Amino acid sequence: MNHQPLFKIVFNDNSIFEGGNYTQTKWLEIPQDKKIRTLFYLLPTGDYLGIGGFKRVYQYVEVVEDLNGEERGKKKIDFICLIIERDNQYIQYKINQINIGLEINILSKNSDYVKKLNPIGWR
Amino acid sequence: MATALTVRVNYVDADVAYGTTPADYIALDLTNDYLIWTKGDATVKDLMTHEPTAAELNAAAELIDPLLAVTVSKCLLMDYSHDIGGAYYTHLVKGMSENKKYVFAFSFDGATATEPQIEAWDTSAHLTALKHVLGAGTALNSMMKGVCTTTSLPGAGWAGTAIAGASNVLLLNDGSGAIAVASTLYANLKILIPAAYATPAAETFVLTCRYTYF
User: Fold this and answer.
1) Taking a C-beta distance cutoff of 8 angstroms, is the pair B78, B36 a contact?
2) Between A63, A66, A69, which is nearest B211 by CB?
3) Which of A6, A58, A64, A112 to mutate to test the interface with B (most CBs of B within 10 A)?
4) If we measure between CA atoms, which residue out of B151, B114, B96, B112 comes closest to residue B5?
């Protein structure tokens, strides 16, 4: 059982917020009145991915649930997605939970995908 | 907590929403229940009193027509617990393939971060879509068709989106993006077999709902 927090956030005032687990990430509980300096996000290997220097950051857990077949009814985490906003672009980090790996994509400022995200997730 | 999904099918009146008439819907126990697409016959039908065997399902299969595309006639919910309305194992999904809005319901108990979607794959590994029913490698040719009916009727003779693999998916919120609060989204689904399709097959494939939470 992995008891490492899903993420750790260091704010500009050096205070720290720790995330929960895959079921209850606590992402929406991150205080919004403080500027995030660095985000450390748990990788399937047990290491943390450190990201900083962004305007704001978004996180979600993506799951697949089969309606039929051998694994129907199992809620499987496919990947965790982090999106950071910089001046001229968004950078997407897809942390693959099934086929362990990290995929990094550059998204344009006008990305339709970004526009359709639920805005409550930005921190 | 993570947002949870409940999948339901309408087995009474496909003109009424789950929110107004929940009794018209059966929630799928996704671990045990499943959907059967069939032409049906005197044995494989609505309100069966046993779980259909493979031989019975093969005997009731839809036939390829040499001249016309054929929509698989029926979708049955195989209810493993057989405890709805009597000891029945199967229930006909009402409105499947028709100009009906409230057929397949996808209820989320909280917000999502992105728009939920339906996908179709060869297996639960979600890696390939090469089966005949999924277009044999050409996603646009998938026989599995779907239409989002969350906001409107699909229209008479709806064509729908060919569902197969990662590129051809059915968005459940009409392309409007994530859902902000707990919601029920709707779709209609059907299997359309092309005329004179050269390869008869009894294939299983996997329908998947992909969604997100914070």
Assistant:
1) yes
2) A63
3) A64
4) B112
Whole-structure pTM value: 0.94
Chain Cα centroid distance, residue B28: 12
Note which residues in 42-61 of chain A have CB less than 8 A from chain B.
58-61
Which residues pair with residue B81 across a beta bridge? none
> What is the spatial distance between Cα B143 and Cα B136, in angstroms, rounded to a whole number?
10
Based on the number of CB atoms within 10 Å of its own CB, is A58 exposed (0-12), middle (13-18) or buried (19 or more)? buried
Give Cα separations from B15 to B19, B71, B73 (angstroms): 12, 21, 19
Q: Note the pLDDT tens digit of each residue in A41-100.
A: 999 999 999 999 999 999 999 999 999 888 888 899 999 999 999 988 999 999 998 878
d(CA B200, CA B172): 31
Predicted-assembly ipTM surpassing the 0.85 threshold: yes
Residue whose structure tokens are 């499943």: B34
pLDDT in tens, B144-198: 999 999 999 999 999 999 999 999 999 999 999 999 999 999 999 999 999 999 9
Radius of gyration of chain A (CA): 15
Give the start-to-end residue ranges of the domains of chain B: 5-210
Residue B1 and residue A77: Cα distance in Å, rounded? 14
Q: Which is nearest to A27 in space by CA: A44, A8, A43? A: A8
Paired tokens of B206: 């996997």
3-state DSSP call for residue A69? coil
Which of A24, A71, A121 has its CB closest to that of B113? A121
Both tokens of B5, joined, read: 């999904």
Phi, psi (deg, nearest 5) at residue B169: -125, 165
